[in-house]
Amino acid sequence: MCNTVLVVDDMEINRELLAEILKDKYDVMMAENGKQALEYMEKRHQEIAVILLDLIMPQMDGFEVLKAMRENLWLDKIPVLVISGESSVKVEQECFEYGVSDFIHKPFDNALVKKRVDNIVSLFQYQRKLEDKVADQTKTLREQYKVLEMQAERLRQSNNNIIDVLGTVVEHRNLESGEHVKRVKGYTRIMAEEIRKAYPEYGLTKEKIEVIVSASALHDLGKIAIPDSILLKPGKFTKEEFDCMKAHTLRGCEILSSIEGVWDEEYGKIGYEICRYHHERYDGKGYPDGLKEDEIPISAQLVSVADVYDALVNERVYKDAIPKDKAFQMIIDGECGTFSPKLMECFRRARDKFENLADNKPGNNKEK
Predict the structure, then answer these.
(1) Buried/exposed code over 201-226 (b: 16+ C-beta within 10 A; e: otherwise)
(2) By CB count within 10 A, which of 66, 119, 286, 299 is most buried?
(3) Residue 30: in which H helix or E strand, if any?
């Protein structure tokens, strides 16, 4: 604990008198001018509990001392009690603007000086204890936050691994190489980033985008429950077969509900939205619930555009690949169902990114 008082006064009698007043409780150092006081502070500022400072001194006056202390950030740690014969209100105000703790006019009362010093030292020591306590608590909180960050990252990785496994199972059932899921993730990210920049009202933070991109792998999860005779049929569906295929949106949600609690709540919620609603359309003519406009969660709207585009530009058991420029125009013209005008505006801006991703996908033959 700091217990040293530094008395700075060019008058020896004043220094001796102040030392006599305080010697029973404090160790007292004395400096006869500002320059000497700063030399003491350079070497021993961590030991000093309070400084009693005169203003009018040779070589370096009190204001120069205060200026040097402020530049060295010592005024934040060492309280200063000015004891001066100056009676001007302006001088006193200037001292307080520097950050001194108190001002006593000469001639001073011994008991008053002792009481003021005790009060200032007690206050600053209490303040230091609080600062130390806050620093310790802050350090502890930072350490705990790092642990929570590590746990959150492991949870995110676990969520992603579960989703990837489920997505891969679907792809293999659908006789896909597994690249469809990766491409849909890529297209979803492109769309989400464009929406985030253009339409902040959707609340797409970077963190939420990561969850949506990851959960996009679940969009066709329900196809696990669709019979091979329908899932792999090369020709046109009958009405009954199409109704069965459309049910994959609901079957997927049933699967997700059955494993509730395995992953983070946000992943589960967004995964459910994508699984159920990615075939809904902006004009209400989609399925399974006939939602329209922004009744459809933005996560499902994003994945819907990504899924349709990838289905168009790639070969499937029931169709050949469509050229990218034609696929783009089909989506814009609403031939694959109506999409949000905001999404279509972003889709236009992202056209090159979509086509670049389609060109770079493994096993793709670039269009001539």
Answers:
(1) ebebeeebbebbbbbbbbbbbbbbbb
(2) 299
(3) strand 27-31
pTM value is 0.57
Spatial CB neighbours of 348, under 8 Å, sequence gap ≥ 6: 332
Tokens of 242: 């199409």
pLDDT confidence of residue 365: 38
What is the domain class of 174-360 according to CATH?
Answer: mainly alpha
Q: Enumerate residues 6+ apart whose C-beta is below 8 A from 71.
A: none
In the chain, domain spans: 4-136, 174-360
CA atoms of 115 and 41, how far apart (whole Å): 24
Residue 362 reports pLDDT greater than 60: no
Side-chain half-sphere of 126: how many Cα atoms within 13 Å?
A: 6
| pLDDT tens by residue, 266-299 | 888 999 999 999 999 999 999 999 999 999 999 9
**What DSSP character marks residue 241?**
H
> Whole-angstrom Cα distance, residue 308 to residue 282?
14
Q: How far is CA 292 from the centre of its chain?
A: 33
Residue 27: phi and psi, rounded to 5, are -85, 130
CA distances from 269 to 25, 96, 299 (A): 67, 58, 10
For tokens 């949600």, the residue is: 253
β-strand partners of 6? 29, 51
**Confidence at 159, pLDDT banded by 50, 70, 90:** low
d(CA 61, CA 58): 6
- CATH architecture observed for domain 4-136: 3-Layer(aba) Sandwich (3.40)
**For residue 238, what is the DSSP state?**
P
Closest CA to 194 of 354, 359, 356, 361: 354
Cα separations (Å) of 174 from 171, 249, 276?
A: 5, 15, 19
DSSP 8-state code for residue 337: B
22-33 residue pLDDT tens: 999 999 999 999
pLDDT digits (tens, 9 = 90+) for 166-182: 665 666 555 554 678 88
What is each CA distance from 58 to 52, 93, 309, in whole angstroms?
Answer: 16, 22, 84
Strand 27-31 and strand 48-53: the pairing is unpaired
**Rounded Cα–Cα distance for residues 25 and 300 (Å):** 74
